[in-house]
Specification:
With about 500 residues, the protein is an all-alpha fold. It is built from 15 helices and two strands. It has a two-stranded antiparallel ribbon. Helix 6 runs parallel beside helix 15, helix 7 packs antiparallel against helix 8 and helix 8 runs antiparallel to helix 9. InterPro entries: Phos_transporter.
Length: about 500
């Protein structure tokens, strides 16, 4: 290269060209970044189909099972993207866990729950919604399950995209109802069960909200509003942790470990009582040690609730993986058994490879698509700190136990989100109450205008409306979509 080639004007031209290449690379990276997660998800779905093909060999019905495995993997991804946010959102919103830490913990415990205590037997028709004998042939049953699986996955995917946490169980039920009606008429549906599910749209969030608000009131009245907050915390934090430990022990025995250990409600509650008392005694010296040197202010109290909150999130994820993996793989397992044996009226045993699709699909869905819903649940409905998030987590476990005792069908998704709403609305009520007390104690001509207080609402009303509408629409929307898919799929000979 000659000196003439290195003249300033040539160097300027070279710099501009390099700048254009840099801008082009940055633009390409910006455009391709949103496609990474869907691409990885697509690869997982394809691998699930290939695994099914290799395990079944050259059987005549291989294409049906491969298609069902693809739909099941797709549903598992959507469960991870949507449902798991209810367990991890409060801990992340309270800054007790980072997003990365929450994803790792949830992935591990969701997979463990699915594989260790996952439902190894499910009803052939989800929750007894449709009478099996109404679907008169194996082909009709196969297409009904296929349509239900795909319809529920599509609906949960849409709900995740718009930022609405919905019940995947309700989506599957809606899918089964729609396919059942399309295949056998309205008489095939157990409408009493459907009315009970509709009632749970109200029961679940209200119960969760009331229980969470009650515990937040207890924490505020016994700790936060006390003159010596640290001394009060030394008394009440061990009690609250004991309540949480006992509740989760009973919750896991009843919901998460029911496939490994069959126990009655009374035995589960006795086990929970024993665990709760043990943890209460254990936490007394631990809390004293943690509270040494803490300043007498609310911010210091967050330290004492951090570890219990992380533990509760992990336990909720374990129980969720044990229970809700069946939403993804239950219909798939029913299809596999029907194809292999021709029997679609009995109980269905879920093979290990099917459970693996569900477990890994939930973990992948959480890792790839979960942060959006985790942020929404944890910080966009109302502001959470460790104490409020603790109330949400404890409410989820207590409400499920109460509902099981009363025989009420409830949704863990609705309970968790309802608990967040309950915490937020209680804070609004409590702030208004304290404001009135302050005005009585120190009258002021102008304190805060009413319109200004309205702008300071502690719960975002837009999310209340969006999530509530998504809950109500889930079953009919999944049912309608499933019915349409069933009418299309049954044209294909099974």
């Amino acid at each position: 290269m000659s000196d003439k080639d290195l003249e300033p004007r040539h160097l300027e031209t070279l710099d501009r060209d390099l700048g254009r290449f840099a801008n082009l690379e940055a633009a390409a990276a910006y455009v391709s970044r949103p496609l990474v997660a869907p691409g990885i998800g697509f690869v997982f779905i394809i691998l699930a189909g290939l695994a099914a093909a290799m395990l079944l060999g050259q059987s005549g019905e291989m294409l049906i099972v491969v298609t069902a495995a693809v739909f099941g993997a797709y549903m598992a991804l959507n469960i991870g993207a949507n449902d798991v946010a209810n367990n991890m959102g409060p801990a992340v919103g309270a800054n007790a866990l980072s997003m990365g830490g929450a994803i790792i913990i949830a992935a591990v415990f969701e997979s463990a729950g699915a594989l260790i205590a996952g439902a190894d037997v499910v009803s052939t028709i989800a929750k007894g919604i449709v009478a099996p004998e109404a679907l008169d042939t194996p082909a009709t049953f196969i297409w009904a399950m296929m349509a239900a699986l795909l319809a529920s996955a599509l609906w949960v995917n849409l709900a995740t995209w718009i930022g609405a946490p919905v019940s995947t169980t309700h989506a599957v039920v809606g899918g089964v109802v729609g396919a059942g009606i399309a295949g056998a008429g309205f008489g095939a549906v157990s409408w009493d069960q459907m009315f009970a599910i509709a009632a749970s749209w109200v029961i679940s969030p209200v119960m969760g909200g009331v229980v969470a608000a009650g515990f937040l009131w207890l924490i505020k009245s016994r700790i936060v509003y006390r003159e010596d907050k640290i001394a009060a915390a030394r008394v009440w934090v061990p009690v609250l942790v004991g309540i949480m430990a006992g509740t989760f022990a009973a919750y896991l025995v009843m919901k998460g470990l029911k496939q490994l250990v069959e126990v009655s409600m009374g035995v589960a509650l006795l086990l929970g009582l024993g665990v709760g008392l043990g943890c209460w005694l254990l936490m007394i010296p631990v809390t004293r040690r943690q509270s040494r040197g803490l300043e007498n202010r609310n911010k210091s109290l967050k330290v004492l609730f951090g570890i219990p909150l992380v533990a509760s999130a992990a336990l909720l994820s374990f129980a969720h993986g044990a229970n809700d993996v069946a939403n993804a793989v239950g219909p798939l397992a029913a299809i596999v058994q029907t194809v292999q044996t021709g029997d679609f009226n009995g109980d269905v045993t879920i093979p290990l490879w099917v459970m693996l699709i569900g477990a890994f699909g939930i973990s992948f869905g959480l890792s790839l698509f979960g942060p959006k819903l985790i942020r929404m649940v944890g910080s966009e409905i109302t502001k959470l700190n460790p104490m409020r998030a603790y109330c949400v987590a404890l409410s989820a476990a207590i409400t499920v136990i109460l509902a099981s005792w009363l025989g009420l069908p409830v949704s863990s998704t609705h309970i968790a989100v309802g608990a967040i709403f309950g915490v937020g609305f209680f804070r609004e009520w409590d702030a208004e109450r304290r404001l009135k007390q302050a005005r009585v104690a120190v009258p002021r001509p102008e304190y805060i205008p009413a319109d200004e207080r309205r702008r300071r609402k502690l719960v975002r009303r837009l999310h209340v409306l969006t999530i509530g509408a998504a809950w109500v629409v889930t079953v009919p929307a999944a049912a309608l979509l499933s019915a349409l898919l069933f009418l299309i799929l049954r044209q294909i000979p099974a």
